Amino acid sequence: MVKKVIYGNHAVSYGARDSRVEVIAAYPITPQTQVVELLSEFCASGELKAKFIKVESEHSAMAACVGASAAGARAFTATSSQGLALMHEMLHWASNARHPIVMANINRAMGPPWSIWTDQNDSIAQRDTGWLQFYCSTNQEVYDTTIQAFKICENDKVLLPGMLILDAFVLSHTSEVVDMPPQEEIDEFLPPYEAKYKLDLDDPRAFGGLMFPDWYYELKYKQHRSMEKALKIIEDVGREFGERFGRYYGLVEEYRIDDAEIVLVVSSTVAQTSKEAVDLLRKEGMRIGLVRIRTFRPFPKEKIRKIASKVDMMIVIDRNISFGSEGVFYTETKAALYNEKSRPPVYGVIIGLGGRDVRVEDIMNIAKKGKNNKLEINKINWWGVKL
Amino acid sequence: MVKVTLGAVNKIAGSSKNYKTGDWRTLKPVIDLEKCKKCWACYKYCPEGCIEKTEKGPIVDYDFCKGCGICANECPFKAIEMIMEER
């Protein structure tokens, strides 16, 4: 067992190394660069026996990963913001062709104006491409999720690509202790990827052909069913990981919700800040807890319903905005609850776009405003916006 | 019961040969071998590779000819006529 103090970005690199990825195709972009920088060093030194492909764009990076995965390799890449947007076409391709590629996306605000700081609009915009999405909140979780993502995505009930997501700078360039289990124990947890169908000269098949309307529709149904089945696989894999390594994971993380009247719905590093706020508010006597949405696709509707059934108020804090609508976690949370017989009021708050700091006192004040019925119910609550 | 593989990988390589695209044709090229001088312009221009060179002259593979009419347009001796396909 090795414990190291490392950046969030390097937690991704070590996670990919320890998952024994076979092909890495990547293009550098701030704030992702360190992820592939360290991986290229692992490849150069022979510490990681993988083919590192330098490409001319992120579109090509994902295309190369698709090719590698079609050839039966365990493929990995990392990107951010504009780079993720440039991959868009290939993201659909990876999912529709059922390639279990794993990618790290470092959340960075979309330009213009140019920004290198965090918000979730880049990954949220890829919501409907058929990728699993995991929003991580600590460097340890980043490392652990990289390894788990391969096991989840390569499960034959799932066979979809997966994206693990971490906040620019707040996590990507922040040092934390990361505990890395011995390689042989990880190998036992994550055996090599065996593709059911692969590019093989001795057994040729046709990939990416034309599909007429008589079967395309059924494939989309199967793709969606695989996403639904992934809900259980994610929990199973998270539990197995916990049994082996002592750190348990699931679709959501619940924090002090047992007797809570108010529950915050949060994600990514905002969740860590919110835990601190919850602790302080508890000391002041407020019955408050939080649920951190770790898995955004597939969306953990049942978990949200179960939690909502026991509380008086939910406040969803989004570090993203769907222009013309509202925060996306807010929309999804409400949609999960709409047909429930009884449900608490759900408030939506936008915060921290473009990397604006989200402080403990921000979260505390949001909660207090909610408790005093001062948050707007049918409008977006733009926290801290300068008007 | 879905009969296609996940990811729509076709287990039979080269199966496009089994799909007779000649069905798409509206107009059909008919070659008048008496007018043909075997210059092979039709053979060279056919975008589908469906004209075969034989001693008698060019023969159209109607299983895959889509009836685009390029052969008739290129023939310097007006030996190819496009006629309405009847099925």
Description:
Chain A contains 13 helices and 15 strands. With 387 residues, chain A is α/β, with parallel strands linked by helices. Chain A folds into 2 domains: 2-245, Rossmann fold (3-Layer(aba) Sandwich), CATH 3.40.50; 252-382, 3-Layer(aba) Sandwich (Rossmann fold). In chain A, the strands form 3 sheets. Chain A has a 7-stranded mixed sheet, with helices on both faces. In chain A, strands 9-11-10-13-14-15 form a 6-stranded mixed sheet, sandwiched between helices. Chain A is globular. The mean pLDDT of chain A is 97. With 87 residues, chain B is an alpha+beta fold. Chain B has a single domain (20-84), classed as Alpha-Beta Plaits (2-Layer Sandwich), CATH 3.30.70.20. Chain B has helices at residues 41-45, 70-74; strands at residues 27-31, 51-53, 58-60, 80-84. Chain B is elongated and about 55 Å long. The mean pLDDT of chain B is 92. The interface between A and B is medium-sized, with 19 and 15 residues.
Short description, anyone?
The complex is a heterodimer of chains A (about 375) and B (about 90). With about 375 residues, chain A is an alpha/beta fold.
